[in-house]
Write the structure tokens for this entry.
Amino acid sequence: MDPRTTSLLALWKEGRTRFTNQLPKLTAADLPKKLAPGPNSAGFLLRHIGDVELLFAKNVFGLKDVQVHASTVAKGHDTGEWTDLAALIAYVQESAEILERAIVAQSDADWDVVIETKEFGKKTKAEALGRITTHTAYHAGQLAMVVKYGA
């Protein structure tokens, strides 16, 4: 693996620990919790993180073989259906593995390639990696608050 890719992979992995460190403590009872007046449950947040990681692996980092059914993005709101803890944990583990595979596939030169999406416009792949890292960390913070204070 190229040196820049190695460094960026390490950065992404460390950033994602804000999320992954919470997973062993979650219970099925946590999944329907919401923090009023917020609309999203803990289960929705878990699924959403996985959905967006898979979208990035496919659409930003070029893993065309990835099958994505980003239900949280497509539905645009929490429908209350994300309540199977084991399935959600497996889903976010899979999304991490796939996104890691996409990151590892980048050469050092790839990080300067500009991509464009309707969601965030033009960004280099390095900037896009910053975006997915902070997206996961942002929702990890929400998850922590929902689990701690939600009902």
